[in-house]
Amino acid sequence: MAEHSAPSGFSLSESSATWPSGGINDGKRPPLPTSFRPEKRGRADNDDPHDSSTPMDVSGPGWKSSTSSTDGASGDVNTGTYTRVHLKVKAQSRLGETVHCSGSSFVMGHFNPNESMTLVTTPEDYPYWTTVKPMLLPRGVPHQYMYALFSGGVFSSWEQIERERVLVPEGREMLVVEEYGIYDQDMELVPTGERIERSLVYERRRDESPATPRQINASEDMTDIPATRDEESKETGARLAARVAEDKTEADAKSPPSSVTGSPSQRFRQTNKLQSRYKRYMPSSYHPSPDAMLFLVCYHLPVKLSKSTEDGAWSAKWNRDSLISRSDNSIAESMSTTWVGCVTYHARSDQEELSEDDKSEITAILAEMNCIPVFIDRQLAANHHGGYCKSKLWPMFHNVDILDIYYSIWDRAEVIEWKEERNNGEWWEAYQTVNRLLAERVGELCKENDTVWVHDYHLLLFPSYLANACRSENRKRPKMVFFLHVPFPTSEVFRELSHGTQLLEGVLDVDIVGFHSFDHARHFLNACKRFLGLSYQSRRGGNLGVDYRGRNVVITISHVGIETTLIREVLNDPKVQEAARQLREKHKGKVLIAGADVCQRLSGIPLKMLAFEQFFGNCPSWKDKLVFVERATLTQTRLGDQNYSSNEIRKLVERITKAHGPECIDYEESSSPLTIEQRVTLWLASDILMVTSIREGLNLKPLEFVFAKGVNPENPPGVVILSEFSACCCVLNGAVRVNPWNITGLVNSLDHALTMSNEERLGRRARDLPYITNQPAANWTKQVLSVLHEATENPEGNEEYTNMEYMDTEIGRSHVMRVGDRSDFKQLNIDKVMAAYMQSKRRVFLLDYGGTIIARENIAMYVKKDFTAVTGKRPSRRMMEALTNLTNDPRNTVFVVSGVTKKSLTASLGHIRGLGLVSDNGALYSWAKSIDIDNTEDTNMQDDSNPTDRHWHQHSFKFDWRPVREAVDPILKVYCARTNGSVLRYAQQSIAWNFRSTDPEWGLLQANSLQNDLEEVIRDLPVNIIRKKGLLEIVPEGLNKGVVARQILTQDAAISNDHPDFLFCIGDDTTDESMFKAIYDYYAERTEESVHGRHGNGTYEDFLAAGDEGPLHHVFTCTVGKKPSNAHLYVNNVDEVEQLLQALSKALGEVR
Q1: Largest separation between any pair of C-alpha atoms in the chain
Q2: CATH number of the domain encompassing residue 923
Q3: H or E, element range at 120
Q4: Which GO annotations describe the biological process of this protein (predicted)?
Q5: Are residues 461 and 519 in the same domain?
Q6: Band of residue 881 on the pLDDT scale cut at 50, 70, 90
Q7: 462 plus 405 within the same structural domain
């Protein structure tokens, strides 16, 4: 090859390249100069000018073909033909530099330097660099690529050329020889007529200077290089090899070995730091400072006061129904805790205020309970709590528009007038006053190292008042947490609050802002962005952060649990058990559906009544078998809403009982909330709990119901029908989720609950009971405090953030495969696949399961599948028929390769005798029952209980999960606790974090963050992370679909004494990408066997003459859905997969 010199002003050793458009190249795909425009493709001599199948040139003016492919293909990936391509590039590099290649195809890394191919050289071959193994590229399809320099293993620069190189694979195997940095539109690939081993040799030349063909050998000396340059190059190559060996020795000496592989760990310190960090912030590991105090601040002190009618003495006891009340396992048992709040008790009448003596006595009594009371007069309490909080903030925070508040049906009892004008001033002043009084009292008591935890919407201004007070005294404020227990409104509703900006600023003066649901947090973040112009980021560990006044305020999402110890005590109370028995006896022989709600419109009680009425109309046979037990609480706040709701409910009850019998509804109202004893009585007696709230914040009743029905395994499991608008919906994965506005859907859910099998009931209980049992309220408190500790006392001081303003699903990746940019990615042409199938003699099918031969289920169906272990959906009748017909042909080997369990896969497809099955991502596999696989390396697993009597094989490699568990468990448990609805599962061959039942947006953000953290700690462990839809799975390195695909091809060749000449592989998610890659690698590695195994001692010319009769002539990789994939073909949906398999199965008669 003729010697070329680098363009003036360009050096191969430059750390960055400047392109014609200016700027420093950042490692992304280089832009093309706008002066270059595509031209029409030149035709080979044997091309038919009228052949419409000839593709248009997508490569521009850099390609001209002088040879046709051996099969006459005109560049269509639908033909399934490939070429093995070797690269050999001449590049003068400096010490420590290596040459890489990246391009438009999968094997070239999609122009991502981090996924590029590494070329190698030796002191003898330098300055020539070659690919380690051939690339498998679709034949006749133009591929763009470029070379790049890496220095010390890190991307340095692209080669500076006018445009991307273009390569059109031709023939069975080809070697491309070219020079780094030398390429323009006048250069083309020209066959020399020579070969190196089995590859035809092509050189990159200019049109005007054709070269004379000559023999090239891989080991020949480059005689056209001057002797001095040749010696210098060899010396540089020797120094390069010595330096690499020296660097490796130094790394081995400095890095401790991995506990699993024994290999050097390059990230030992970072991994241990991340592990210890998560261990330190787990709730069970939280240990507060002994001299620090926790102040729990709320509007209502969690106590019940009473005054004796006999001697007038005051007494106090803890309110067991309060979230922040002291209990046996509360945070007060592990750190000094003080409660601060208001006392609004009125003694003998609503008009009489507490006397000074009463206040003194109450203060003394509460001091013994570590409670600090703040006394406010009746009018101030009315304006603050009954006015601004309950009449303004409460409905608006539940997304009730301000016009609905003023003109809604719950206020028709009063004269309609603008309360904003009449009362807003007094209410707002009262709200400020109460917040300021509490802040001043806490400010007098707290110190710098203390923690102040503020609860709920009554005290939104408290943090800013306390912070301002500390600033005015020139002292540091204590650490602060604010937790909201009601929903946060959308920005459109929040903007209607005239003081909304002040409320936001008041909350943001804390270190942590907490929510029970991501949906609530999302609205808060949107309000911060829209009204304060604040940006937010994703922090390491799964939390979010808002930049405010030079600080990063952490946003945490964590749903509180229940007091399981207290409920256990109540469950064992004989009085409660007797009360439950009496309630059952009252409705003997009937199914009890329970409801316990506040009597208000947003509770949705009328909606469940309407559903109950419609259910009786649809299923009259249930009239005497069903009773609806509803308990409504009259809170005496917002009386218009309460009175209207009560009247509406009573009318519905009267109508339903009149039509279907007086005993079908048991409805009662009470002026005080149900005690815990009354609630547990109702839970024990009932079979189903129905919650149909329209908008709701914290509601722990469904968690109580599940625990009460499940704590004793002998009790029959209950079923929860839960509104998707409830905050606890995100943590109860076993509930039947409903939209209460959809009455028909509500009726269907009720029917499902009534007819549900005991197996499914048990499965649903098993899904939720461990979470409820292991996440009591005390753990929730410690978890939030651990987040506070992490945010305020991070010893590393190097918290990582990810800006979320332009966040994509591929977080952290600069290079994403783009579907529309690929000339080697087309929609599958069924006729061309059929033609290849008809010509073939040996065929192999590798088919994914979920999303490929069976439609992927929605979220609700995922939940059902997880409970019963066997999904309710099966492949369609036509799909079953197609699979059966394909397996009936002895020339076909058909496998379904899935990540589901053996039980699920066998139940769906095990009856098809000729079908091979692979479950658990390759951990278990079963060949067609007509084939006896004798693999001594596998362990035969005969399942005697399997009705299809299949033989299953399990990979026999031994894997020690202990070091993996030690590394990942702290991280996984923290993410589980921080991501409502996620589930952690341990299996024999995997560890899985399931986030299908989480909020979709929040689950995706958490999954991306978790994957990044896990990749750091497992980098030196022999495991991989598999990303599925709604699932992150950790599996051993040797366990994936790609490994089993290679094994199937190898064993099939051994069984048939022949390689397949037709291979079809299809899947729909990321786990299937390993199959595509394994197939490309398998094909690329078949060269030696193809020549010597199939053709004996034939010459290479014999091999070329054989044309496409060699093994693996047609290879089809296909994905379901047009999306970024390593496959070369796509179909739109499962229906098209069914059509394809049906067409192939019906072709059996024609090819026999």
Answers
A1: 120
A2: 3.40.50.1000
A3: strand 117-120
A4: trehalose biosynthetic process
A5: yes
A6: very high
A7: yes
For residue range 74-93, what is the model confidence (pLDDT) as tens digits?
567 888 888 889 999 999 98
Instruction: Give the structural domain span for 887.
Output: 819-957+1038-1151
Strand locations in 801-950, DSSP E?
801-803, 826-827, 843-848, 892-897, 915-919, 924-926, 938-942
Helix (H) or strand (E) holding 557: strand 551-557
- Both 492 and 516 in one domain: the answer is yes
What would the pLDDT profile of 365-408 be if each residue is shown by its tens digit?
999 999 999 999 888 998 999 889 998 899 899 888 765 655 55
| CA nearest to 1068, candidates 912, 909, 902, 850 | 850
What is the Rg, in whole angstroms, of the alpha carbon atoms belonging to the chain?
36
3-state secondary structure of 339: strand
Q: How far is CA 186 from CA 182, 192, 362, 754, in A?
A: 11, 18, 95, 76
Which ranges constitute the DSSP H helices of 160-305? 227-254, 268-280
Strands 512-515 and 551-557: parallel
For residues 590 and 737, membership in a common domain is answered with yes
pLDDT in tens, 19-73: 323 333 444 444 433 333 333 333 333 344 334 333 333 333 333 333 333 333 4
**What is the rounded end-to-end Cα distance, in angstroms, of the chain?**
52
CATH number for the domain spanning 443: value is 3.40.50.2000
Report residue 814 as tokens: 């600069």
Question: How far apart are the C-alpha atoms of 887 and 893, rounded to whole Å?
Answer: 7
Closest-CA residue to 148 (of 140, 156, 136): 156
Separation between Cα atoms, residue 101 and residue 561, nearest integer Å: 54
| CA separation, residue 1017 to residues 208, 257, 965, 989, 1101 (Å) | 57, 14, 11, 19, 52
Cα 901-904-907 angle, rounded to 5 deg? 140
Of 134, 100, 126, the closest CA to residue 115 belongs to 100
What confidence category does residue 905 fall into, taking pLDDT thresholds of 50, 70 and 90? confident
> How many Cβ atoms from other residues are within 10 Å of residue 718's Cβ?
22
User: CA 254, 114, 923, 864: dihedral to nearest 10 degrees?
Assistant: 120
Of the candidates 1058, 580, 1076, the residue with the CA atom closest to the CA atom of residue 842? 1058
- Please give the residue that has the higher pLDDT: either 336 or 3: 336
Q: Cα–Cα distance between 487 and 478 in angstroms, integer?
A: 27
183, 162 in Cβ contact below 8 A?
yes
Q: E strand or H helix at 341, and its extent?
A: strand 336-343
Give the domain CATH number at 980: 3.30.70
pLDDT in tens, 164-215: 899 899 888 889 999 999 988 778 888 877 776 667 788 887 755 444 433 3
Reduced DSSP (H G I as helix, E B as strand, rest coil) percent helix, strand, coil of the chain, to 5: 40, 20, 40
Reported confidence tier of residue 823, pLDDT bands at 50, 70, 90: low
Quote the tokens at residue 576: 């409660």
Q: Are 550 and 986 in contact (CB under 8 A)?
A: no
**% of the chain residues with pLDDT over 90:** 30
Half-sphere exposure of 519 (CA within 13 A, CB side): 24
State the SS3 of 668-689: EEECCCCCHHHHHHHHHHCCEE
Cis omega (within 30 of 0) for bond into 127: yes
CA distances from 95 to 88, 149, 181, 926 (A): 20, 12, 18, 52
So what's the pLDDT on residue 423? 66
Q: Total structural domains in the chain?
A: 5
User: Which strands, in side-by-side order, build the sheet including 938-942?
Assistant: 826-827, 1129-1131, 1114-1120, 1062-1067, 843-848, 892-897, 915-919, 924-926, 951-955, 938-942
